[in-house]
Amino acid sequence: MNIFLCILLPVFFLLVRRKRSSDRVPPGSLGLPVIGQSLSFLWAMRANTADRWIAERAKRYGPISKLSLFGKPAVFIHGQAANKFVFTSDDSIMNNHQTESIKMILGDRCLSELSGEDHKRVRSALASFLKPECLKLYIGEMEEEVRRHLEMHWNGKQNITVLPLMKTLTFNIICTLLFGVERGARRDKLVQYFQEILEGLWSIPINFPLTRFNRGLKASAKVQNILKDLVREKRVELESAASSHQGLITSLLNIRGEDNRELVSEDEIVHNIMLVMVAGHDTSAVLISFIVRLLANDPAIYAAVLKEQEEIKKSKPSGEFLTWQDLAKMKHTWRVAMETLRTIPPVFGGFRKTLKDIEYEGYLIPKGWQVFWVTSMTHMDNNIFQEPSKFDPYRFENQAPIPPYCYIPFGGGPRMCPGYEFARIETLVTVHYLVTQFNWKLCCNDNSIRRDPVPVPAQGLPIQIRPK
């Protein structure tokens, strides 16, 4: 009898402990194994009803709930406190984490996956190049890319489709400025493969032939091979002092320890090049495209942006490049961009992963679960932004009333996107040339949006253009 008690009592207490733990897990359902709520969420994203999908979940379960996305259990949290919790939690509690599909396609040594000292080391390396003091030296090169793009794809045309052209522009800017990839076959291949990568990033990680995930994995392998060759070329140029382009790759290779050892590994360089290409290529193209749509739809905002940009243009000799001081004068244009990011954030949300059981708002978030946060929940909260559905760039004239961790298109705190300044410069330079060189009107009255996973305007935003 005693032997049976010795065996059964520990089992009994273990079951009781598990029961208590499961009772404290947030409300909700994990759905079907592997699939969970992934399909319904992705359908909502593509129909641009994901905000409603999330709001209905919050209304049903409250500010914290469990679900399963992309093959793993997750806890959805939202609000200012939730954003702060996500962006400031110690790496011993939660670490950076993306969906399995993103991790497998972009690689496990990119910034969105690294934590602790590795995250600080690689983030510092990226930030050393993306800081304003460095980027201001590249405004002229960025401007040359914009001028060349408009000459090739806008001048002499009557009708164009904005989004694909903006993707072409931002990809060329990244290739030229950050990586020193010359125009030609290699750049053309990268463009093709990256489109397949983007389509596979938010997908169910089941590697069946012809699925988005499968195509994304194959494209990723090809891109990584191209980029490894590029890194080796840059290393040879650096060692022979023949490097003519001090881009991001060269900058990362230049970062050395006391023993002259490279502090950023080849895999870290390659994986973070892919991350920067994905983050900088699609998000900036989407932002500029929606600014173009906004300026066509709102004459008052267009007039204010045009006035600001015309004044800057008139203050400069013809043909002279923009300067850092010129960009600093584009305050209203950037407020318009910020309000566009608030109402249509390119990044819907993100994930982190718990490293231990976490107590949050009276619930238990088990070790190993995903923590899922969504950008729009605070962006469209009328307790934070008065009349949130109204487009009002003047709300950013004085940002003091906006509480911290409520406006998060670039993340927040120690996890603020290091590419923020690059995106700002790229957007302002492009908008300057668009409004001072062209008039346009929309060819499509459909203002609908789908997410795949970034927001896409109907038909890619076709417009009719006329040079000034």
From TrEMBL:
Where are the bilayer-spanning segments? none
Membrane topology per record: Single-pass membrane protein
Pfam (any one): p450
GO CC, one annotated term: membrane
Q: Which UniProt keywords apply?
A: Heme, Iron, Membrane, Metal-binding, Monooxygenase, Oxidoreductase, Signal, Transmembrane, Transmembrane helix
KW Signal (keyword) present: yes
The record ties this protein, via SUPFAM superfamilies, to:
Cytochrome P450
Native species: Olea europaea subsp. europaea
**What is the protein's name according to its record?**
Cytochrome P450 716B1-like
Give the signal sequence positions: 1-21
Molecular function GO labels? heme binding; iron ion binding; oxidoreductase activity, acting on paired donors, with incorporation or reduction of molecular oxygen, reduced flavin or flavoprotein as one donor, and incorporation of one atom of oxygen
Give the family per the record.
Answer: Belongs to the cytochrome P450 family.
Please tell me where this protein is predominantly located: membrane
The record ties this protein, via Gene3D superfamilies, to: Cytochrome P450 (1.10.630.10)
Superkingdom classification of source: Eukaryota
**GO terms for biological process?**
sterol metabolic process
Cofactor(s) annotated in UniProt: heme
Q: Where in the cell is it found?
A: Membrane
Q: State where heme binds.
A: 417
